[in-house]
């Protein structure tokens, strides 16, 4: 068989500037990912911060493959000007806590091990890593950030979106929102059920897994006004006002950023993304 030589030919057509197919993902002004997998990066841009994200779902449900999360991750990456690594973790009740924490730590250890091996890591600033998550994922991000095993990898900050914490004593927001079940997808009854399924056998909601862990990194806590979890998130912020920044988004409930398709939901999601971008790149101005 006669050998065939394949060459790339550039035409004189000024519009024919792309040999790699359509752009399938783009962070405007920073990165373009083409249909054939080719990646281009602006020559004026240095390496990007990395967000390691943990999805919500009461430790019992959820997946990085859910379309609502894929859409939110794309918006988060574009607006925050960061790379995003979305982590799947083992779910309860088959795998009760601390399985999710262990998987979160292992994800960070994988980053440490492969930081020089992966093509995408060439774009990543490993001195600027942020742990983030919503609901149960926010709880995981908080607990993973406190784990000594992830050192010496530098965790610059944590971003906790409606973090899932609890206790046996009811808070005012839990009582208020429970009387208006239309205001949020997370009810007090469902919250209690998730915890009952996720905790080790025999544990109650005073278990340390239900509580935030003190960490030494700066933290942004994003709170929904109509969320049963609001008071617990604000209490966490009040415990260290110097390191913790708390922002309350008015008129929206739990998981609004992935589930609320209303104009208000979209508006509050955009505000939250702007706050996350400011937290990462302009912390003092937030």
UniProtKB/TrEMBL annotation:
Coiled-coil positions are: none
Q: Which residues form the Alpha/beta hydrolase fold-3 domain?
A: 51-257
Listed InterPro entries: AB_hydrolase_3 (IPR013094), AB_hydrolase_fold (IPR029058), Carboxylest/Gibb_receptor (IPR050466), Lipase_GDXG_put_SER_AS (IPR033140)
Q: What's the domain of life for this entry?
A: Eukaryota
Q: Where is the active site?
A: 135
Q: Pfam families recorded for this chain? A: Abhydrolase_3
**Where do the TM regions start and end?**
none
Regarding protein family, the annotation reads:
Belongs to the 'GDXG' lipolytic enzyme family.
Mind telling me what this protein is named? Alpha/beta hydrolase fold-3 domain-containing protein
Say which species the protein is native to: Eruca vesicaria subsp. sativa (Garden rocket)
Question: Source taxonomy lineage?
Answer: Eukaryota, Viridiplantae, Streptophyta, Embryophyta, Tracheophyta
């Amino acid at each position: 068989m006669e050998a065939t030589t394949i060459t790339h030919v550039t035409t004189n057509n000024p519009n024919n500037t792309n040999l790699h197919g359509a752009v399938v993902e783009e962070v405007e002004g920073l990165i373009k990912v083409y249909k054939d997998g080719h990646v281009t990066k602006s020559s004026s841009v240095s390496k990007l911060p990395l967000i390691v994200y943990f999805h919500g779902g009461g430790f019992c449900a959820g997946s990085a493959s859910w379309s609502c999360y894929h859409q939110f991750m794309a918006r988060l990456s574009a607006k925050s000007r960061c790379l995003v690594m979305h982590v799947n973790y083992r779910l309860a009740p088959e795998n009760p806590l601390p399985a999710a924490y262990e998987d979160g730590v292992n994800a960070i250890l994988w980053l440490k091990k492969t930081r020089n091996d992966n093509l995408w890591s060439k774009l990543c600033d490993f001195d600027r890593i942020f742990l983030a998550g919503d609901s149960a994922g926010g709880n995981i991000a908080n607990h993973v950030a406190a784990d000594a095993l992830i050192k010496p990898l530098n965790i610059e900050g944590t971003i906790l979106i409606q973090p899932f914490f609890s206790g046996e004593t009811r808070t005012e927001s839990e009582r208020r929102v429970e009387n208006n079940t239309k205001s949020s997808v997370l009810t007090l009854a469902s919250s209690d059920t998730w915890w009952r399924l996720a905790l080790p056998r025999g544990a109650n909601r005073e278990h340390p897994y239900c509580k935030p862990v003190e960490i030494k990194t700066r933290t942004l806590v994003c709170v929904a006004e109509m969320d049963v979890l609001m008071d617990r998130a604000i209490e966490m912020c009040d415990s260290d006002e110097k390191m913790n920044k708390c922002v309350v988004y008015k008129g929206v409930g739990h998981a609004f950023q992935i589930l609320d398709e209303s104009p208000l939901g979209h508006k509050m999601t955009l505000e939250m993304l702007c706050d996350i971008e400011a937290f990462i790149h302009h912390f003092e101005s937030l």
